[in-house]
Design goal:
The complex is a heterodimer of chains A (507) and B (167). Chain A is an all-alpha fold and 507 residues long. Chain A contains 22 helices and two strands. In chain A, helix 7 (150-167) runs parallel beside helix 21 (475-488). Classes of the chains: A mainly alpha (507), B mainly alpha (167).
Chain lengths: 507, 167
Amino acid sequence: MIDDLQSLMHGFAVALSLQNLGLMLLGITLGVIIGVLPGLGGANGVAILLPLTFSMAQTPGGQTSAIILLSCIYWGALFGGAITSILFNIPGEPWSVATTFDGYPLAQKGRAGHALTAAFTSSFVGAFVAVLLITFLAPVIANFALEFGPPEFFGVYLLTFCAFVGMSKEPPFKTIAAMMTGFALAAVGTDPVTGTLRLTFGSVRLLNGFDFLIAVIGLFGIGEILLTLEEGLAFKGASAKLNLKAVIETWRELPRYWLTSVRSSVVGCFMGIVPGGATPASFMSYGVARRFSKDGDKFGSGQLEGVVAPETAAHAAGTSALLPMLTLGVPGSPTAAVLLGGLLIWGLQPGPLLFVEQKDFVWGLIASMYLGNIAGLVVVLTCVPLFAAILRIPFSVIAPIIVVVCAIGAYTVHNAIFDVWMMVVFGVLGYVFKKLSYPLAPLVLAIVLGDSAEASFRQAMLISAGDMRVFFSNGLVGTLTGLALFLLFWPAISLAWAKIRRKPARR
Amino acid sequence: MSEGNGRPAFSVRAAELVVAALFIVLGGIVIFDSIRLGASWGADGPQPGYFPFYLGVIICVSSAITFGQALVMRKEKNGSFVDVEALRAVLSVLIPAAIYVALIGWIGIYVASALFVAAFMRWLGKYAWWKVAAVSIGNSVVFFLIFERWFLVPLPKGPLENLLGIA
């Protein structure tokens, strides 16, 4: 514990350098813009900017600066989603959908400033709780995970992916199909163990497989633009004035909802660590708050509490998604997956050893989470009108520019025009998948984790000489596998349970 | 989404069936290639096709179930996947975007981007020509400065950049 605090203090020393503070502000600002624009979000925003950090990461200490820049873009995007939800009733990010329920009615009543302040402040609170959790829990988990062998790691991967099946709103068989497609895409190219070429069918282009960055830019970027276009967006928004009086009034009112904040933080942290993600966390937290609040029946008509709950949970989930990413190498959200991909490209191996071998990096990142969220709160509170102005740019101007940004982002990953074509293909896929409710997050996570999951599976199989019982060979791996199977069959279990309960009632 | 009053271009059921069928084809390809590489247990452990083989099987099985569910889908659930008008809007971006990507390799990303933004603004936004020119050219110049000058990331360039001597 004392050691950890010392490491954290050292981390602050790293993060507080002038260059890193500058990158923090730049990242937050870019992130908010990305969060506000339709078609650009946390995941693809970070993916597009990732290639720009390749050269930065090669300088000494540059890896820390690079992760600070990218993670601050993520925090910024989390903040930015709320602005469009409240002012325009358009969620800039999926996790801010629940914020529109009470945020937009508040704005229509002329209390936009109050809603925005409540959203930003509770985002900050949620993130802060999650960072505290990371600070104290991450070293413990990393230490524990040092003992993990291949079967345990495969157990963790299995749990991650089964959690998607058990917890997502999408139909379970579609979730499985999307996820396995991600694994299949990851398998394309050279087999990491034997070096055999797989699924390339003689094509030179496919030698290196599909890059998840291209998939993310296409699926989330181009796909989102196509969806937005179809809905025929016309931005009509409340005015974005945020004066000091509204801020202070809201801050006076907020402590009343402390219990909602606590509950939402818990829901958010939990959903972020098991890869439920920020979006279900925000909905769940909104639902919980409505049920427990004494003003529950007024939810939806413009209650501050209805803004506090989803925003706290979304930020707590988005932030705590980095906990399994850092300690186990298993990201809890698509954006965390992109950050993990970045770490791999910079030559860092995420997982328990990171805490031993790259102390500066890990603690610099954790310290930057504290500072980044404080900086974020200040930036969004002061610059709301500026960001809202971006949304007044007509869609026919901003849409082609976003497509251009995505194309440049896809090209810079490998300097290949073929990748830009792949981006367009993934864009169409993203559009169709979204409309047929095939989930995108497990697909992306599977592309990122495919090789590691396969490697740990094959190593475990080698150890046991092909005996599947290795996944139940000791208490730890048995619990992981058992829990994973429980989550995998959860949709079937809950369906059966509902049928059993309904039958006697009908008689 | 598109449950408007417009004429549907495809029904949800048709879209579900096509996508599930494509998944089954994909799963089939994966299985086929895995068997070619050997999907069983070799002398030195699992063969390269061991893991992908099961991926292919799971894709096929789960998509076959989705396919079946779509076949027996109740009528009231089988709405419009996309309206004709919405489809037109989507294609009005997708087709120019495809042309844009084709142009990148030929005339460079900066000129292609300027043309793409200009076409979009003129046809969909109906802006005056001077606004179209200002935004589209300005946008490419800004990107040129950011990538070529500040971040030193070279992007594809074409005849115009050669002519100007900045390639």
